[in-house]
Design a protein that fits this description.
alpha/beta, Rossmann fold, 2 domains, globular
Length: about 200
């Protein structure tokens, strides 16, 4: 029986990584979309070759890996270049995610993605869990964790799917407004529930 896929998402500072780590500790196979995005541009992969062909050797660091800062700056200046990059990478990232999900042997597998709703990756999942946190806590946690000013966190919150949009797509919501022990209890409760599901549906 093929495992069904749970899409796990949440805004910055919501605690989705801590939730994902606990699901993983309980035995759920986990794939992180951010890792997949890094894998597809590793040296020797076709995507990196295409990026260098288009934007030049300045896109490489001395060790042959992608110069992310240079690429970010380049596509930040041009919507057309950004679209080109997205068209190159999105299908490859999707393929990478699908390959890794295909290796799952647990009853259900988890796709963790901060942009699950915006990127269309939600189509890979049979069920969606949103880790939700009141905005003032998101700000506090992120400022503390990343040591960044409030304006910067607010700017990231603006870019990520608005909270209402994420919640509109949610099958389940884990409200993470307490401590780590509470988060772990909620994850364990959901894990037991998910093990009872067939294909992600009750």
């Amino acid at each position: 029986m093929k495992p069904w896929i749970l899409g796990l998402t949440g805004g910055i500072g919501s605690g989705k990584s801590a939730a994902a780590a606990h699901f993983s500790a309980l035995g759920a196979h986990m794939v992180d979309a951010d890792h997949a995005a890094r894998w597809v541009v590793e040296p020797g992969r076709p995507a990196l070759t295409s990026i260098v062909e288009r934007f030049g050797e300045a896109m490489l660091l001395p060790d042959g890996t992608l110069n992310r800062a240079a690429l970010r700056e380049r596509i930040f200046q041009s919507a057309e270049e950004r679209r080109w990059l997205e068209q190159l990478l999105h299908p490859l990232i999707g393929q990478e995610i699908a390959n890794h999900l295909g290796q799952a042997e647990s009853p259900y597998a988890i796709l963790v993605s901060p942009l699950l709703v915006e990127s269309g990756q939600r189509r890979l999942a049979q069920r969606i869990l949103v880790v939700d946190t009141p905005e003032h806590l998101q700000l506090e946690r992120t400022m503390r964790r990343d040591n960044v000013p409030e304006e910067q966190v607010r700017a990231i919150l603006q870019v990520q799917a608005q909270r209402d949009e994420r919640l509109r797509h949610a099958d389940d919501v884990l409200v993470n407004d307490s401590d780590l022990a509470h988060l772990h209890r909620e994850v364990e409760r959901l894990h037991d529930f998910y093990l009872s599901l067939r294909g992600g549906q009750p």
